[in-house]
Write a structure and sequence with these properties.
Blueprint lengths: L1 H11 L4 E2 L2 H8 L12 E3 L4 H14 L3 E4 L18 E4 L6 E5 L4 E5 L4 H10 L2 E2 L12 H6 L7 H4 L6 E7 L5 E4 L12 H5 L8 E8 L1 E2 L3 E9 L2 H14 L4 E8 H10 L13 E9 L12 H14 L5 E4 L3 H12 L1 H8 L2 E2 L2 E3 L5 H15 L4 E7 L4 E7 L6 H5 L2 H14 L15 H7 L2 H14 L14
Parallel strand pairs: 2-4, 3-4
Antiparallel strand pairs: 1-2, 5-6, 6-10, 7-11, 8-9, 8-10, 12-14, 12-15, 13-14, 13-18, 16-19, 17-19, 18-19
This protein binds flavin-adenine dinucleotide, (2R)-2-hydroxypentanedioic acid and zinc ion.
Length: 476
C-alpha cells in the first residue's frame, strides 16, 4: 500500500494527497451524515492528465475510485464504503473557468468549479447559467452533471442534462474521451454524453464541460403566496404560464411545517406574511426584456400583481407578498432554500425525492400523507418542492425528540408504502437526487428486469473490473 501511495504522490504531488485522518474526514461522510466511510487516501488531481494517470494506476492495482465534487449529494453516492479499500478522487482542485463565449452562449469549465462561481461568471458577462439550487455555494458542476441535478428553474430551463453541450470524461481504463463539443446538433451514433450525465460517477469521471448560457433576465417578479391547497397551487401555476407570457421560471410549493423549521432554526429568517397558512407558493417570473424607463409599459411585477388579484377572487390565493426589491426576493428564496438545513437541525428525517405528473400531485399528496401517518402516527410530514416539475420532497420528520436509530427503525415501514403509491401514480422514486447508495435496493425493486439488465450491461461493458464507484446505483 505504501507503494501505491508513493505512486499516487508521484502523479499529484503532496498538494494533491490527503492521508491524515482529520484531513480525510470531511471527504468520508456525506452532507446528511448518513454514512461514514474510510479511504486509502483522498486524491486531488489538478488536471485531466493527472486524473487519467491516477485512474490508470488504480485500474492496474485494482483499487476502486469514488469520484467526489462538493460532497453535497443526498444519496451517499460520493462517500466511500466502510472497508477502506477505495480512494476518494476529489475534483476540487480542478476549478478553473476555461472559456466564456458570449457570442456562442457557452462557457467551458473544469468539473470542480463551484456552481455559484459559474452563475456569477455568467452574470458578469450579461448571461445566465440557470441551474440554481440550495447547495449552489458548495456543489460543483461535475457533481451537478453526474447527478443530473434539478433545482428551482427546471420548469423553464430543464435539468442539468439540458444545460450542457459537451463533456470530457476519463474512462475507467484511464483513457480521456474529449467530447467537449459546443454543438447543438450532433447525431453521430450513440449519445455517449448522455450516458455519463446522471451516472453518479459509476461509468467514468467528468473532468470538463461546455455549458449552455442564456440571456440574463432584466425584469424579475417574485411573490410569496399563501394558497388554500396543493390543488390551488397547481391551478395557480397552470394559469401563470399564459398570464406571464410564458415567463414562469420558478414555482415552489411549501407546507407550513418546513417553513416553521426554517423560522425555528435559521437565524435571521422572518415570515413574509402575518398570518399562518397551511400551504405556500414561491412564484417567480423572469423576462430578458428590460422595462424602458419613462414608458407606461407594464413590467412583470404589475402583471403578476394583476394575476394574483384575479386568482384571489377565484379563491386560489389567500394572501400574497410581492417582493419590492432584490433583497426582499432573496429573503423569500432563503426560506425556501433553507428547508433542507432546517430539517437537518430539527433532527432525523427520511427523504422521499419523488415525482408524479403535475396533474396528479394533489391526489398523490393526500394518499401519501395518510400512508406516512398510518406507518407512524406521530411522524411529521414535511412536503415541499418543485411543483412545476411534479417533483416533491415528500419528506418525513421524526416525532419530536426522537433519535436517529429510533426513527430509522421505521424507514421501510414509511418509505415502502410511499414508493408503492408513487409507482401506482406512474411516478418516479428519485426525481432529482439520484440513487447513490441509499436507494440501490429501491431501484432494484421498482425498475423492470429489462431496465436493470440494460443498466448492468452498460456498467459491465464500460467498467468490467467494477472499480468506478462500485456499489452505487447498481449491484453488478
Ligand atoms: P457530490 O455530492 O460530490 O457527488 C454526487 C455524485 O456525483 C456522487 O455519486 C459522485 O461520485 C459523483 N460525482 C461528483 N463529481 C463527479 C465527477 N466530476 N465525475 C463523475 N462523478 C462525479 N439536488 C438537486 O437536484 N436539486 C436541488 O434543488 C438540490 N438542492 C440541494 C440543497 C441542499 C442544501 C443540499 C445539501 C443538496 C441539494 N441537492 C439538490 C443535492 C446536491 O446538491 C446535488 O446532487 C449536486 O448536484 C451534487 O453536486 P456535488 O458537487 O456536491 O456532488
Ligand atoms: C431542494 O429542493 C433539495 O431543496 C433538497 O432538492 C430537498 O432536503 C431535501 O429533501
Ligand atoms: Zn429539490
Amino acid at each position: 500500500m505504501t507503494d501505491l501511495i508513493e505512486r499516487l504522490r508521484a502523479i499529484v504531488g503532496d498538494k494533491g494527497l490527503i492521508l491524515d485522518e482529520e484531513g480525510k474526514h470531511p471527504y468520508l461522510t456525506d452532507w446528511r451524515e448518513t454514512y461514514l466511510g474510510k479511504a486509502l487516501a483522498i486524491v486531488r488531481p489538478a488536471t485531466t492528465e493527472e486524473v487519467a494517470a491516477v485512474v490508470k494506476l488504480c485500474a492496474a492495482e485494482r483499487v476502486a475510485i469514488v469520484p467526489q465534487g462538493g460532497n453535497t449529494g443526498m444519496m451517499g453516492g460520493g462517500t466511500p464504503h466502510e472497508d477502506g479499500h477505495e480512494i476518494v478522487l476529489s475534483l476540487n482542485r480542478m476549478n478553473r473557468i476555461l472559456d466564456i463565449d458570449t457570442i456562442g452562449y457557452t462557457m467551458t469549465v473544469e468539473a470542480g468549479v463551484i456552481l455559484k462561481t459559474i452563475q456569477e461568471t455568467a452574470a458578469q458577462n450579461d448571461r445566465l447559467f440557470p441551474l440554481s439550487l440550495g447547495a449552489e455555494g458548495s456543489c460543483t458542476i461535475g457533481g451537478n452533471l453526474s447527478t443530473n441535478a434539478g433545482g428551482v428553474q427546471v420548469l423553464h430551463y430543464g435539468n442539468a442534462r439540458q444545460l450542457v453541450l459537451g463533456i470530457e470524461v476519463v474512462t475507467p481504463q484511464g483513457e480521456v474521451w474529449n467530447g467537449l463539443r459546443a454543438l447543438k446538433k450532433d447525431n453521430t451514433g450513440y449519445d455517449l454524453r448522455d450516458l455519463y450525465l446522471g451516472a453518479e460517477g459509476t461509468l467514468g469521471i467528468i473532468t470538463k464541460a461546455v455549458l449552455k448560457l442564456w440571456p440574463k433576465p432584466k425584469d424579475v417578479a417574485t411573490a410569496w403566496i399563501a394558497v388554500p391547497s396543493p390543488e390551488a397551487a397547481v391551478e395557480l401555476l397552470s394559469g401563470a404560464h399564459a398570464a406571464s407570457e410564458d415567463n414562469v421560471t420558478s414555482c415552489e410549493l411549501m407546507a407550513r411545517q418546513g417553513i416553521d423549521f426554517v423560522l425555528d432554526h435559521i437565524p435571521g429568517s422572518t415570515d413574509p406574511l402575518q398570518e399562518k397558512y397551511d400551504w405556500y407558493v414561491l412564484l417567480e417570473w423572469s423576462s430578458t426584456r428590460a422595462r424602458r424607463p419613462g414608458t407606461n409599459e407594464t413590467g412583470l411585477a404589475e402583471k403578476m400583481e394583476a394575476y394574483l388579484g384575479e386568482a384571489m377572487e377565484k379563491g386560489l390565493v389567500l394572501d400574497a407578498a410581492l417582493a419590492q426589491n432584490e433583497s426582499q426576493a432573496r429573503a423569500f428564496w432563503a426560506i425556501r432554500e433553507n428547508h433542507s438545513e432546517g430539517q437537518k437541525r430539527e433532527g432525523p428525517s427520511i427523504k422521499h425525492d419523488i415525482s408524479v405528473s403535475v396533474s396528479k400531485i394533489a391526489g398523490f399528496m393526500a394518499e401519501g400523507v395518510a400512508a406516512m401517518k398510518k406507518a407512524l402516527p406521530d411522524c411529521r410530514p414535511v412536503v415541499f418542492g418543485h411543483v412545476g416539475d411534479g417533483n416533491l420532497h415528500f419528506n418525513c420528520q421524526s416525532p419530536s425528540g426522537w433519535n436517529k436509530a429510533q426513527f430509522m427503525a421505521y424507514h421501510h415501514a414509511i418509505s415502502g408504502p410511499v414508493y408503492d403509491l408513487v409507482v401506482s401514480h406512474g411516478g418516479s422514486i428519485s426525481a432529482e437526487h439520484g440513487i447513490g447508495r441509499l436507494k440501490v435496493e429501491d431501484l432494484a425493486h421498482y425498475r423492470s428486469k429489462v431496465e436493470l439488465d440494460t443498466m448492468r450491461a452498460i456498467k459491465r461493458a464500460l467498467d468490467p473490473q467494477n472499480l468506478m464507484n462500485p456499489g452505487k446505483i447498481l449491484q453488478v
